[in-house]
Amino acid sequence: MLSQNDPFISFYRSQMSVINPAFAGIEYDYSLAFNSRNQWVSIENSPSTQFFSISSKRKNNIGLGLSFVSNKAFIESRTMSYIDFSYRLQISSDTNFFLGLKPGGVFFDTNFNDLSSNNDPALRNFSRFNPNLGLGFLLQSNKIWVSFSIPRMFDSEGDEIFNSYSNNSSVYMGFGINLNVKDEILLKPSILSRFSGSETVADLSTLANINNRYEFGINYRTNNSLSGLFSINIKNFTVGYSYETSINKNGLNINLNTHEILLTINVNGGNEDTKLGPEPPK
Length: 282
What we know:
The protein has 282 residues and is mainly beta. The chain contains one helix and 15 strands; from the N terminus they run αβββββββββββββββ.
């Protein structure tokens, strides 16, 4: 992941609404996505992430969606719940500009009952909710897409005991292009970067789509991780798998491997009133 606060997954095209609400409802009349990511599986109580979203095209150039992301690491859990809203402005026959808003918040919870050796009465369970607001912009045509977003505009501070529930705003910028290699083969290089304070992390990806049915590719993350992914599209269903490994072991004899699975269900109802323009690149 790019961070514990703003999860970003290898199959990002299906789940970009997590970090950019402008993606809500732009591809299908109805879309449902589920993702499960188990990070560093060789380490006990390592981070895990579950993601669920549903979005829909609506009339009058509007897209609506809901997104839920649950992160758990050791005794801490963080659940993000947001409503996504997008609005389309048509620039030309094949180019659209989308505006997005993301109201919601983050639930933070620490459960010391999970510590079998906890005998300290000062260590009490703790929970807190931090409301927030995000925004995003998306420019897309049949050939390219450009994304800019701030999933949470407002910082939240921790305290002298529970600093880990603090959240810092991050800025995301992304760009992708579609290259027709042959009639049935589409090459899709892209980059997505996160800027948070002095930290910058980027994902460099290249995917190959064959006959709009099979997709495979590779992703390099600049914090020294490499992943390969594969997905298959069967009618309205897409099933995918990603395997990620750390390039730099930092001298530790530990396998920092991550497994990730994806399931999406996409439906077009054929109602022309809900169509927002040309289909975006998958």
